[in-house]
From TrEMBL:
The chain crosses the membrane at residues 17-40, 52-69, 84-105, 117-141, 192-211, 218-236, 256-279, 346-367, 379-396. The keyword Membrane applies. The lineage of its organism: Bacteria, Bacillati, Actinomycetota, Actinomycetes, Streptosporangiales. InterPro entries: WaaL-like. This is O-antigen ligase family protein. Keywords: Membrane, Transmembrane, Transmembrane helix. It comes from the Bacteria.
């Protein structure tokens, strides 16, 4: 790899270090600075088709700051430091992601071959499996990161900020009626781990199996069964559905018989393992459905009162699905509720940027599917699958911070792949 490539290598291969420092998903903001320097030196900058939608999304989010002090009907809260910090962090991430896409697309294929980038994503998959196993077997593992020590309490003590900078292996929740570990290392929370491992799995298989030699294929054969342990223990139904969608997509676009046999073998192995009982218990305990329904409905109602620019950040609604009491109390420990927009990137975009922002977000990824669907190469098909997963996960997962980074890197891979396919065609025309 050439010197200009080190920021993306530092992001993907060095992610455990960023996590240990307390930066984790926010490392994309730090590394966007040297990426921007590389871009500045390479002017004029190439821009992919469809990127204008992301720039409009960015501009809309900047405008939404004017409503930060307002509260839609049915919500409460003041213009606090936490609300402003959350807004600024999301704005910084959106900008950093735009820089990352342009940076990757303006590196030459000699500097950063496609397969190298795919395999770097595979390295992060290995990290994610290791973090998942740590979360299953040592869910209480956590420590104070250097960034936490440096930040003043009025910043580091904010709950949103703390989730981002405090390294934890997992969450212990009572989803099944008893304490159960849910892995989250090396990401912000358990749902982020679920979204990310499904996307990274796609690239791991492409880079380490499809284009892999004997050693890498052995690694795949060993790591996939290991990955099944935290995937099941995550109790993450969205992740499980995402994996089923991935199998259906591959069967549709690739080899139905091969995919069907692989799925049947994996399903049989799961049913014969102790993990099957955990899956059955989770499906029988859909305790989060009522909470999600309340939060989503409240989000839609709030967004309808500012449909063009939204409210810049999340809000808290009065009450929850079972009571009008707001927040946890000694006599009502279950009265708390998640912030509006926390149940999926679509709902987050609705409350922060209104219907306009949500439409731009959907159009960006839909456009990528339409534009790159004809790319039948392994990288093209994998990237298109990730774009489809993005549109599914937006209903159940908040994409910020780490998940959106992987989504946009996958978009950049599709763009680079299309440019690579176009180059020989242009060369033939030039010499025709």
């Amino acid at each position: 790899m050439r010197p200009a490539v080190w920021p993306i290598a530092a992001l993907l291969a060095g992610y455990p270090i960023w996590w240990a420092l307390g930066l984790g998903g926010l490392s994309i903001v730090v590394l966007a600075v040297p990426m921007a320097v590389v871009l500045w030196r390479r002017r004029p900058i190439k821009v992919p088709k469809g990127m204008g939608l992301w720039f409009l999304l960015l501009a809309g989010y900047a405008i939404s700051a004017v409503t930060l002090a307002e509260n839609p009907p049915g919500t409460y809260g003041d213009l606090s430091t936490g609300r402003i910090l959350g807004y600024l962090m999301r704005l910084a991430v959106y900008v950093a992601l735009a820089v990352t896409v342009l940076y990757l697309g303006n590196l030459t294929l000699d500097e950063l071959p496609q397969l190298t980038l795919v395999r770097l994503l595979g390295v992060l998959f290995i990290t994610t499996v290791a973090g998942g196993l740590l979360g299953v077997f040592a869910p209480g593992f956590q420590f104070t990161a250097p960034v936490e020590l440096l930040l003043p309490d009025w910043i580091g003590g904010n709950s949103f900020v703390k989730n981002l900078i405090h390294p934890t292996a997992g969450q212990v929740q009572h989803v099944l009626g008893h304490a159960s570990p849910r892995p989250e290392a090396p990401f912000e929370w358990a749902n982020a781990w679920g979204s990310n491992i499904s996307v990274l799995l796609v690239w791991f298989v492409v880079g380490w199996w499809t284009y892999g030699g004997r050693g890498r294929r052995v690694a795949v054969a060993v790591l996939l069964p290991l990955a099944a342990i935290p995937i099941v223990y995550s109790l993450n139904r969205g992740l499980w559905i995402g994996l089923a969608l991935s199998a259906a997509y591959l069967a549709f676009r690739w080899r139905p018989l091969v995919v069907g046999v692989a799925v049947a073998l994996a399903g049989g192995a799961l049913l014969l393992s102790p993990l099957a009982a955990i899956v059955g218990q989770r499906l029988a305990n859909p305790h989060s459905n009522d909470i999600r329904a309340f939060t989503v409905a409240s989000t839609v109602r709030a967004a309808a009162t500012s449909p063009v620019i939204g409210y810049g950040n999340t809000r808290n609604a009065y009450g929850n699905y079972s009571t009008i009491t707001t927040g946890k109390t000694a006599w009502c420990p279950t009265c708390g509720h998640p912030p509006l927009g926390s149940d999926g990137q679509l709902w987050l975009t609705l409350i922060t940027q209104g219907l306009t922002g949500a439409a731009l977000y959907v159009a960006f990824f839909l456009g990528a599917i339409r534009r790159y669907w004809s790319d039948r190469s392994p990288i093209g098909q994998a990237g298109t699958l990730v774009m489809i997963l993005v549109l599914f996960y937006m209903f159940v997962y908040d994409g910020l911070v780490s998940a959106l980074s992987l989504y946009l890197i996958s978009f950049a891979l599709l763009w680079r792949n299309a440019a690579q396919r176009q180059a020989p065609r242009n060369a033939r025309w030039a010499h025709g």
